Structures are given as structure tokens and as C-alpha cells.
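Newbie here. two chains, one complex. Structure please?
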Amino acid sequence: GAVVSQHPSWVICKSGTSVKIECRSLDFQATTMFWYRQFPKQSLMLMATSNEGSKATYEQGVEKDKFLINHASLTLSTLTVTSAHPEDSSFYICSARPPEGTSRQPQHFGDGTRLSIL
Amino acid sequence: QKEVEQNSGPLSVPEGAIASLNCTYSDRVSQSFFWYRQYSGKSPELIMSIYSNGDKEDGRFTAQLNKASQYVSLLIRDSQPSDSATYLCAGGGGSNYKLTFGKGTLLTVNP
């Protein structure tokens, strides 16, 4: 089945550090990827839609200068949390849209990245 | 009104019982619906999708969609302790491929 790899799975860093999270579709080309954030005991909140070769589309209330998204190839999207602070600590999950007609799933999810800012 | 709402829970059922999970949605949500299971600390995994009115069965799971009432549900028969997880209802997957998730229902199946 389709696999989406997300790295790192867990990161702890000091306040003010920038953190990059990678999301790779391993066996299909993904023109569209999504980034979600999930706080404890809450649902997945879509942060942005990452489009290959163009700018990401951010959801209302998400700071584009804070959460930088790059989708430079059909298999890789990155999310960089710039100057991270403790309130940015969360579970970040990426997903990739499979090519039309190739999957019964609308999106394939990565395993998530647990980000803890001290 | 939020686009996808799950107001029930947490839900606790004994092993072997039927667990019933519910979700309502607004007009702005695309007419495709998905139920995901999420274990603590893990990413969600798709267990059922439903696109048209009526019931859809897959093993112990049955999804029901009522477009007139804007209501979608998931029944889990013969519940097992391994079914204990958070169940997320999601709508969308339309032309923009976006999914809108409900807040989830925590299900605990007691042995």
C-alpha cells in the first residue's frame, strides 16, 4: 500500500530554535500534501495545503511566516517551524493525496512528529 | 456551526457489545465521509468511507449516511478491547481534496 514517511518522529529543542519536518511519499507522486497539527485530546486541525511547485495555501489563523512550507518535488514536502516556542509544542502530521483512481483513501498519513519545545 | 461535529463521548462499552458513534455535518462539507481510528500517539488510519445514503458494511463495522439529516454514524459490532481508540469522523475529499475532522470520540471497550 501507499506509504508516507515523516521524519523526525520526535524532536525536543530549545525555545527559539527552528525545526524542520519532512514528509515523503515513498511509492507515489503527490502533487498535494497536507499539514495538520493536533494538540492533546483534540482533533486534527488542518494548517495548510502544500502544492508542488507553488505556494502553500494556509488555513485561517495559521501564520505563514511562522510555519514555512516547501513542496519542491512530487515526493517531498517540508514544514519548518521557525523560532519555535513552547506553545508550538504539538503533534504534527502530514498526509499526501494519492493520484486519482489509485487508492480508496483520500489521503495517506505519515506517522506524525511529536514536537516539544522547552 | 462547525463543519463536522462529534458531540458524543467518551464512550465506554463492554466487550462484545455494539458501539455507536455519531457525527453531524454542515452544508459546507463535501458529501464524502470517512471514519478514522486513531490510537494514542499515532496517526489516524482509515476504517470506513461512505459516499451515498444508506448503510455500508465491512466486517464488524457499519457506516450509515443520512444526507437529509446530515448525519453519519459508525457501528462497531462485537466490540473488542483492541477497538479502544479515538474515532474521528471526517468530511470532504472533494475537488480540493481537503478533509475536515470532527473532534473525535474516545471509545473504551472493557474486557
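Moderator note: Chain B has a mean pLDDT of 91. The longest strand of chain B covers residues 85-92. Thread marked as resolved.
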